[in-house]
Task: structure prediction
Amino acid sequence: MDQTTDGRDLALLVQLRWLAVAGQIATILVAHNIIGIRLPLLPMGLVVAVLVAVNLISLTRLRRWKWALPVELLIDVLALATQLALSGGATNPFTTLFLLQITLSAVLLPREISWSLVGLMSVIFALLTEFHLPLVLPEGMEFFPVYIGGMFVGLTLDAVLIVAFVTRVAANLSDRTARLERLRQRAAEEDHIVRMGLFASGAAHELGTPLASISVILGDWRRSVTDPEQREDIAVMQRAVDRCKAIVTGILMTSGEVRGEAPRVTGVRAFVGELAQEWAQGRNFHGLVLEDRFGDDVPIVSDATLKKMLMNVLDNAHEVSPDWVALEAARSDGDLVLTVRDQGPGFSREMLADFGRPYTSTKGAAGRGLGLFLAVSALRKLGGDVSAHNADDGAVVTVRLPLASLALEEDDV
Result:
């Protein structure tokens, strides 16, 4: 088990030990003061004090010790054996409480240690048949009714505590399994990112030369053409090539191919405004509505990864809503909250369930859905998150990012 699960199980064991302490005190008081059975109160009280001390120690850093669980269970077994030896040994009906210790060891400990405790309990029980202080009942009281009553109480306690403990441990194991599944999913997604990053970096290298050649040819062609309409068409193609070259340069910068450029300091408002203007101009789109609800501006370092991610989100909104897209910037509890709205058909239930996973797309084409996946992954790397839901007139994607992850540091000045 991992440390988190071990910590929960140890905390649960501490709770059970407090119940055991309270139960032993109550049983000793009832047996001695009400039933009238003479018991050695001082040594039995010392055993209870040891259990209290173990619980207090469990609250310290020693709980992180890898042998904490087996050692504490061993102490519980020895404490129970001592109490039984002081109160009738094997004839004490509360010997059934050994079943609880066996159950705990089987659930919490490795197989070898569990079998070792089973062997130890068997030896202890055999010794208790010979070495113990006898139970001294009040004169005239028969032993068998007392034994049956004690058996009833002991078995009831066993059943209640075993069910309570095992169900809690099962819940801890279920949480651990879910956590491991999330980690496995995250590892698989990061593997996708690495492979796509390597492919994109290689493709950017390969595309650099032909794009430069096309740009030179277009420049020569434009100078040799006199027809204004053709010159305008060539200018449009030149802008498209320039955009492709900028995308390739961005890929190389993101993958670390371009070094030595100082980080650009800006503010949240300027960053969002530049993002909106660059995206709208690059797509010749006039239907973008920018809503600034951020409040007092904050200096940040311009992050190219965040900008590309938000452009992917805007691209997705533009595809389903070609006439209108809204981008809102706001602040909430130290987070930058960016909301993208569109007037498209919205997300299907399946899309919302798998939102942000690779190859999840409404477009039906092979390999689609990677843009949003990369956006979500990049955002998580920055400590943020993204969510989506449907509104009455379209879809809403909300990006939340801690401002601290974009904050200006001394090294950036």
